[in-house]
Amino acid sequence: MLRPAAVCEALKFYADFEKTGRLEKVLPARRLDRLANIKSMLGQASDETATALLKRLNINVVVADAQKTPISKESIDFFVSSGVLEYIPRPVLQGILKEFKRIGSRGAVMSHRLNLVAQYSYFDPSITEFNFLRFTEKQWRWRNSPLIWQNRLRIPDYRDLLTEAGFELVGEESTSGKPEDLARVPLAPEFRQYSREDLIVLHSFLTAKGR
Questions:
Q1: How many whole angstroms separate alpha carbon 11 and alpha carbon 5?
Q2: Which residue in 49, 80, 115, 203 has the fewest CB atoms around it within 10 Å?
């Protein structure tokens, strides 16, 4: 995403949405001065890097280990991820959330979209979205692709991670799969302690705030 062409394309969406009136509908509190800035940037031929372009919008890019960032303590009001956490090992997630607690302001809010689907099912119609729950941890190590590594954490694990890090879960919107698809999968011992209600969750939006 940190390519000048990609940044300009994103900015162009804002300008086009404003021109058609759609931006006002989805973002009624939009700042017209910022829109003017975007339009002026799009009208200029520039050799600037994506980081420099975003800096002109007061967006500071930080590429770093999210477990240890250079960001000041209690300086972030909002954290957001979409389809990210399910690819991160649990110990690393614990470190990330600990860092979020350090850099989060007292009223900080976070929103995370989770995709808990066995992703091989996207291209293999013979298996269900719960297929990876059949494998023990040892068996899964041989099947877990390094190209799309999945931690297989279930929805209660994310609730626990947020709580352990000092956040309060204030919202959960989950979508479940089909019970008959889950029933087709003989569960590995690691997943037998979960309730069927929790195991069947495939997608979820979690909202939390600092305690």
A1: 10
A2: 80
Q: What are phi and psi of 32, to 5 degrees?
A: -65, -30
Report the run of H or E that residue 66 belongs to, with start and end. none
Query: What pLDDT digit, counting tens, does each position of 187-196 carry?
Result: 999 999 999 9
Shared domain for 15 and 119, answered yes or no, is no
* Amino acid letter for position 35: L
Between residues 86 and 210, the one the model is more confident about:
86
Domain boundary among 11, 36, 61: 61
Show the beta-strand stretches assigned E in 54-120.
76-82, 104-115
Instruction: Give the model's confidence band at 18: pLDDT under 50 very low, under 70 low, under 90 confident, else very high.
Output: very high
Closest CA to 30 of 21, 91, 108: 21
C-alpha span between 155 and 176 (Å, rounded): 11
Banded pLDDT at 46 (limits 50, 70, 90): low
Please give the tally of structural domains in the chain. 2
